[in-house]
Write a structure and sequence with these properties.
Elements (H helix, E strand, L loop, with lengths): L25 H7 L10 H5 L17 E6 L6 E7 L2 E4 L3 E3 L1 H7 L22 E6 L5 H17 L3 E4 L6 E6 L4 E3 L6 E6 L5 H11 L15 E3 L15 H4 L30 E3 L13 H11 L3 E13 L3 E13 L14 E11 L5 E10 L5 E12 L5 E7 L9
Parallel strand pairs: 4-8, 5-6, 5-7, 7-9
Antiparallel strand pairs: 1-2, 2-3, 3-4, 8-9, 10-11, 12-13, 13-16, 14-15, 14-17, 16-17
Helix pairs in contact: 4-5
Protein name: Peptidase M12A domain-containing protein
Keywords: Hydrolase, Metal-binding, Metalloprotease, Protease, Zinc
GO molecular function, one term: zinc ion binding
């Protein structure tokens, strides 16, 4: 297992100046050219991402119909755009049917964990992918370079799809967009003309579960949003994930270098900034994954291993009750064998299920609660659990803790 916090570091990424005949590219070349010969990419093609100029196609969003998804349970309203039978969130996130149902409050909560997953990660850090035969050759180069960048910076692996049922397909489109997380079956990363390497890196981020950086719920400490400068209907593109009503997380502080961050003039209607630093200064588009992006990846895909330990068990055996109490603690390790305690550089937010039952009281409760693991620590004292039965009536009362899906999303 790759150690999650020492071996994943930001590396220098240089574009390839020579055409690489990868396995996925060769069949397309045979179809495109009558003679197989080595081609050299132009200097402009190989270096065009340098400086990361504004991607107009990336900031337009689909020209569809505004729709509001209202959660029947909470009443929360989430504005999206319907375009060609699909629903787009924040301009470039294509929602699955299950995610739409989640936002509308039509999903049943998982009886075991008490929560429903909005997005899922890719098992074994492996993304199977295909490239649509109609994708232009220049866009294929961008896909290849974006994949190389993700693989150089992280331990995420992209494998050309053969018969795997769950995979991403890079397809030509009129928008730059992607599905959010692993949704199962075929899912798309859409590339419009003008979606460059940086755009593909960004959309791959969505496909593996990244949200927009400006959607952090603590952003008010770092940026100012200027709705008066936005295009009509663009304001929801700047909502926090909490305002939208989706489960989310954030680590560290606001990352101005994140490839998932909109530039200052994104969706501007009048040439004035829609996002600025608190001092009013503007910022541009970021080229590559930042150190913070890689930390986010590690948080999701190289998480510590957690074990729930019961200590200091006290037996209860008297004339009235029988059972036991115990102290419940959560420990974080870097390895599956649970031999090396973790030492995290940031605060880790965990979901821990707290189950309470009492036969003498109506109902019961099983709900997820958020716990924070502070930087430099590897232990949380969750509290006292118990399981006690009344000798006379047989009534039981219980309180216990558990952690599912390693405290985050499920596979």
């Amino acid at each position: 297992m790759l150690h999650p916090y020492s071996k994943i570091t930001l590396k220098t990424f240089t574009m390839n100046t020579q055409w690489k005949l990868n396995a996925w590219l060769l069949p397309a070349l045979i179809l495109l050219f009558s003679a197989c010969k080595k081609e050299t990419r132009s200097k402009n093609e190989s270096t065009r991402v340098t400086g990361a100029p504004a991607c107009v196609a990336c900031l337009q969003g689909p020209a569809g119909t505004p729709v509001v998804l209202e959660n029947r349970k909470t009443g929360k309203k989430t504005p999206v755009v319907e375009y060609n039978g699909e629903y787009y969130l924040q301009g470039d996130i294509v929602l699955s049917k299950e995610q739409i149902a989640f936002l509308k409050g039509e999903t049943e909560e998982n009886a075991r964990t008490g929560v429903s997953s909005f997005a899922r990660m890719w098992p074994n850090r492996t993304v199977f992918y295909a490239i649509h035969p109609n994708l232009p050759l220049a866009d294929r180069f961008d896909v290849e370079d974006a994949i190389s960048h993700w693989q150089q910076q992280t331990n995420l692996q992209f494998v050309v799809r053969t018969s795997q049922p769950d995979y991403v397909e890079f397809v030509p489109s009129t928008v730059c967009a992607a599905t959010y997380g692993k949704i199962g079956g075929r899912q798309e990363i859409k590339l419009a003309p003008g979606c460059d390497v940086t755009s593909v890196i960004h959309e791959i981020g969505h496909a593996i579960g990244f949200f927009h950086e400006q959607s952090r719920k603590d952003r008010w400490m770092s940026i100012a949003i200027h709705p008066q400068n936005m295009q009509s209907g663009a304001a929801p593109n700047f909502w926090t994930w909490e305002e939208i009503g989706v489960p989310g997380f954030q680590i560290g502080t606001f990352d101005f270098a994140s490839v998932m961050l909109y530039e200052s003039f994104a969706f501007s209607a009048n040439g004035q900034p829609t996002i600025t630093r608190l001092d009013g200064s503007t910022f541009g588009r970021n080229n590559w994954l930042s150190v913070g992006d890689i930390d986010t990846y590690n948080h999701m895909y190289n998480r510590p291993y957690f074990v729930m330990a019961k200590t200091n068990e006290q037996v209860i055996n008297n004339g009235t009750e029988i059972g036991s109490t115990w102290q419940c603690d959560l420990w974080a390790y870097t390895d599956a064998s649970m031999t090396q305690l973790a030492n995290l550089p940031w605060t880790l937010e965990l979901l821990v299920s707290v189950t309470w039952e009492d036969d003498d009281a109506p109902g019961g409760n099983a709900s997820p609660q958020k716990w924070l693991l502070s930087p430099g620590t590897n232990h949380i004292a969750l509290g006292e659990g118990y399981s006690i039965r009344n000798r006379r009536t047989g009534a039981q009362r219980k309180l216990d803790f558990d952690i599912y899906n390693n405290g985050l999303w499920s596979y």
